[in-house]
Amino acid sequence: MNAGSVVRVNLPDSPYDITVRPGLLADIGTAIASQSKSRKVAVITDSRVGPLYRKALAAALAAAGLEEIFAMIPHGETYKTIQYLLPVYDQLLGAKIERSTPVIALGGGVIGDMAGFVAATVLRGVPFIQIPTTLLAMVDASVGGKTGINHAVGKNLIGAFHQPIAVYADPEVLKTLPPRELRGGLAECIKHDCIRDADGFAALEQNIARALSLDLDYLTELVAHNVAIKARVVEADQFENGERAHLNFGHTFGHAIETISQYQYSHGEAVALGMVGAVYMSEKLGLLDEASRRRIVGVIELAGLPVRGMKLDPQAVIDAMIFDKKVKGGKIRFILLDRIGHAVIQDDLPPELVREAVESLRD
User: Fold this and answer.
1) H-type helices in the chain, by residue range?
2) Beta strand pairing call for 103-107 and 40-46
3) H-helix or E-strand containing 70?
4) Residues designated catalytic
5) pTM of the model
6) What domains lie within the chain, and their CATH numbers?
7) pLDDT tens digits for 310-335?
8) 68: helix, strand or coil
């Protein structure tokens, strides 16, 4: 069996470990008990993941002498609003949780964001543990402490920074992941290598098929590689004042595409299109050479993600970018590349170039 990896996130006030190991879910109770001063734990999941993994987690928690408070939210991005969290607050407060009672997120990025927001706000903050069950959540959303919910104006506009005390990723659970969501997680893997690791990008080009075929040894390595990249970025810039913005490569376009499509495009699909738009602008500005742009678009295609064919109104997408939380001083901030493995921030781009990039996604 793959022994897995432990990646340390060295934050000054809240360091924590990310454990990546196949089979971890079966014996996770002891690890959680060692992290908690409370004998109660609150588990928040959704209607898709709950039937798959709640029983295994409940058994592991009970074996470690922990009492479970269980809350389930409907599955999907459309439910990522305060309306669907109010009953969760009712459950937790009705169960008389204390400030030492950890909230556990069992699910993908949506549940991680929602459960994290609950942990950040109930009783003014309780410990938070992530058990991500999608590739996207394992490599990106579970790491770094961003929590949040959506507003009609845009995605993740209400939220807080609240670091987990631990992240436990079991790649075996990816066997039940729908292929579309597996591909969506690969979008974030591509993003990480594009902004930080040219050698990692080359390796990913060669191994996309192994990921898509659910090769557990490779997926364990892939998750550990990606969380290490994100951990180093978060350590350098915990609250996104500078370098951490590089993690938004593809996301300025992507969040707008998600919002305007009413989440018909998944997060990974929207980010894939966003990366294509970003490298289009990077090449037009003379930052990135054509061969590198083609390699990036090519690996996105190999992952089975969209690179064109967007059926949205370009102006609506541009308008949605204006409401993005990354806008500064009224200027849309884009993360572009000057080479594979290195990102740059641009926030004063010609409006006609932005429109041209969005329209290029429709071809």
Assistant:
1) 28-35, 49-63, 82-94, 109-121, 135-136, 179-196, 198-212, 216-236, 251-260, 267-284, 290-302, 314-322, 351-360
2) parallel
3) strand 67-73
4) 124, 146, 188, 230, 240, 244, 248, 251, 255, 267
5) 0.94
6) 5-176 (3.40.50.1970), 179-360 (1.20.1090.10)
7) 999 999 999 999 877 667 677 899 99
8) strand
